[in-house]
């Protein structure tokens, strides 16, 4: 990948800096009469290094983010609670603009003093955002002197605030974007071997491209979660009522064929934890083997599989993990995911963890500080690892975008 332009390359002192952040965070009511508040501020905290550094360097900050998928100007998806939470974290006022663009908003940006922060309203209130409307991109560019993209989680979308505006202003990656691109690129382009990859989650079809990429470059690929069942079915095993769409079995067969031609060793579960239904109160049934009886479903990898995958992780020098090993949100079926999380946190290898549920599992165990890099991206993470170009990243590499 070409060199990524970063905020080290920008003169921001006294200038208005439009920063695309990913503040698409969950909201909640603490009580029926309480105001809406941020339920999980992890994405806000992830942007703090960029925000704080730009403030220290004398920038006048204008933050832009989306929140949910609002229809028209849904007040329930206003960024007001997000602005309030950010103000608490940076211990400074954060003013919420009443709209996204327009003369009134431009006047607010021009009135900003050094180090002050203005947050634009939900950018998806503007219908041109997801269409990458040039008129909206131009209106956003009028609000600032330079542009910084720190929203890696949206970098795979060519939207007005993630790609269009970057063509119109001097632009660079924020610290979070910089860390994400460098960490994920290193996994595929310059990993220390052995490279061990753990893939889980619901559907093998969702991760086929990234699995195929790792079959070319990894030393060991361990499969867990429901995505193991199409591969097991392709080997002739019974999968019972486990999640296994018919079309995915052929995909699983193709993965097995690709693995047979690859230098990468593909590992599948050797034991499972079953239940008759996916409920927290369902009795769990560990089995030695992977043939699932009719009427039963596999909801977690078994203890022997978790130990075997843990051994692969312990011997690795680079580890990438995406996707839980089972229905970890249901306590009886969380052991496999927790065992892998502990193994990843305990290794001395470089470790990269991506995917919302996977990161949630790591955080729920308090292990986040023992992981080399926790990726904030979902689709963006997988697409970058697949080798696809991300519009929000590619525009930061273009010499024509640098002025």
Average residue pLDDT: 94
* CATH architecture heading of the largest domain: 3-Layer(aba) Sandwich
Radius of gyration: 23 Å
Provide the spatial order of strands within the biggest beta sheet: 5-6-4-1-7-8
Please report the total strand number as a whole number.
17
Percent range for β-strand residues: 15-25%
Instruction: State the helix count.
Output: 14
N-to-C span:
21 Å
Question: What does the main sheet amount to?
Answer: 6 strands, parallel
Shape descriptor reads elongated
Low-pLDDT stretches: none
Structure description:
This protein has 14 helices and 17 strands. With 403 residues, it is α/β, with parallel strands linked by helices. The chain has 2 domains: 170 residues, Rossmann fold; 204 residues, Rossmann fold. A 6-stranded parallel sheet has the order 5-6-4-1-7-8, sandwiched between helices. The protein has a 6-stranded parallel sheet with strand order 11-10-9-15-16-17, with helices on both faces. Strand 7, helix 5 and strand 8 form a beta-alpha-beta unit. Helix 7 runs parallel beside helix 9 and helix 7 packs across helix 13. The longest helix is centred in the middle third of the chain and has 16 residues. The protein starts with 15 loop residues before the first strand and ends in a 9-residue tail after the last helix.
């Amino acid at each position: 990948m070409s060199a990524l332009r970063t905020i080290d390359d920008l003169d921001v002192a006294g200038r208005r800096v439009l920063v695309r952040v990913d503040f698409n965070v969950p909201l909640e009511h603490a009580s029926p009469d309480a105001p809406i508040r941020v339920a999980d501020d992890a994405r806000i905290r992830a942007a703090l290094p960029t925000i704080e550094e730009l403030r220290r360097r004398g920038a006048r900050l204008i933050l832009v983010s989306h929140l949910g998928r609002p229809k028209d100007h849904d007040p329930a998806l206003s960024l007001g609670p997000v602005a309030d939470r950010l103000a608490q974290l940076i211990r400074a006022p954060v003013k919420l603009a009443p709209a996204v663009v327009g003369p009134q908003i431009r006047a607010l940006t021009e009135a900003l003093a050094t180090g002050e922060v203005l947050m634009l309203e939900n950018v998806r209130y503007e219908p041109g955002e997801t269409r990458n409307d040039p008129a909206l991109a131009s209106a956003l560019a009028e609000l600032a002197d330079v542009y910084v993209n720190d929203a890696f989680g949206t970098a795979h979308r060519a939207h007005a605030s993630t790609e269009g505006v970057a063509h119109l202003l001097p632009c660079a990656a924020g610290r979070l974007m910089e860390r994400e691109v460098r960490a994920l690129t290193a996994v595929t382009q310059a990993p220390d071997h052995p490279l061990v990859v753990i893939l889980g989650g619901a559907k093998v079809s969702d991760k086929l491209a990234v699995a195929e990429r790792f079959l070319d470059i990894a030393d060991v690929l361990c499969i867990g979660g429901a995505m193991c069942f199409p591969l097991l079915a392709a080997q002739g095993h019974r999968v019972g009522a486990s999640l296994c769409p018919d079309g995915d079995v052929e995909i699983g067969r193709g993965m097995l064929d690709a693995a047979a031609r690859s230098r990468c060793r593909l590992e599948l579960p050797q034991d499972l934890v079953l239940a008759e239904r996916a409920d927290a109160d369902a009795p769990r049934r560990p089995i030695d083997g992977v043939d699932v009886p009719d009427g039963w479903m596999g909801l977690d990898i078994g203890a022997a599989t978790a130990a075997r995958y843990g051994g692969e992780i312990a011997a690795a020098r680079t580890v990438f993990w995406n996707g839980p090993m089972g229905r970890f949100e249901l306590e009886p079926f969380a052991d496999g995911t927790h065992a892998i999380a502990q193994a990843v946190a305990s290794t001395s290898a470089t470790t990269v963890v991506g995917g919302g549920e996977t990161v949630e599992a790591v955080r729920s165990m308090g292990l986040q500080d023992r992981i080399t890099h926790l990726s904030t991206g979902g689709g963006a993470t997988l697409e970058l690892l697949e080798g696809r170009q991300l519009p929000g990243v590619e525009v930061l590499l273009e010499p024509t975008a640098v002025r």
